[in-house]
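S.,

Sequence below, as promised.
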Amino acid sequence: MYKNINDLLKNSESHNIILLFGEDEFAREEAQNLLIKKFVATEDDKFNFDIFDGEDAKLNQIIDLCRSYPMMTERRVVLVKRFDKLFLGRTSKKIETSSPVANYLESPSETTVLILTASIDGVKDVFKTFNSSSKDAYQKKVGSIKFPYNKIISKYCWMEFPRVYESEYPKWVESRLKSFGKTIDHNALEILVSRTKQTLRDLSNEVDKLVLATEGVSNISLKDVSFLTGSTREYTVFELQKAIAERNIAKAVMIMNKILAVDRQEMLMIAIYSKFFTNLLKICDDFRVGMPPNSMSSKLGISPYQFNDYSLALKKYSPDEIEFALLAICETDLKMKSSNSDGLMVMQNMLFEIMEKKYENPSLL
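The prediction came back faster than expected:
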């Protein structure tokens, strides 16, 4: 039982069954990905890693795999998403005492790490009760939970992810930024939360963008947030990045004009797009040989959501065109630093140079 994901990661090697549950789907998924990243680090690990979805998986198949020995590594890792879907409806006494899962919970394999994620109806505040001074209250709480969660919670490792309410979003964003070594001004925080769609996933994406755009800056100001969120949510540097990835030059020029009319931060835009095309160059060969998107996003150290723009661009730009784009960005950087040219005109020319089609079928080259 852990409150903090970092504590769980530090001690995860000692657990062979880990249950992640609660109403916060985003945090559950994030914890799941961190655990997989730790346990599945090499090609041999990947060979012994299996994923099931409780919506369509068979329980016997999962248990049989958990009981099988790994090949070429010391352990097998099995992830079961939406584990709760395997136990819809009422459970009988027979299932609780003699089913495959009951038997496995009595004697799990020492060479398998079984990671389960679930949203369990009616089950919440388990950690709060566990952390209270009343052991009787905790035992009563666990006793009220249906099989197999009661067995798992009483005997094995678990972490609960309670719902984060909208009133708690500012505190959540501050904590998130703190993990990146950053602070944020109060007014900037209010603007960020008010202009973002009200889900943790959306807030997390905005935080990731802020961290990327304020590299080397420890405190985020209202100016930083206003530049990234734009005068409306439509016109941001990341909407411009998406238009560039789509190779939609009319849309890209329109968004750039809107952004620069509000705040002339050409150098920040150059830095962001330089990093974007540099990352594209790092994975263009991986894309051509069919590497899964999750593996490529992991290689770049970005979230799967952020990878959407990369996936679009890899289909629109050839490796040569990516290199040409980096050259155009570099030349634009020099022009902005060494001349008194019209910044808007220089930036527009950069867009035309990057997005001008140079090959008929770049995705096939």
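Residues 360-365 have pLDDT under 50 and may be disordered.

Coffee later?
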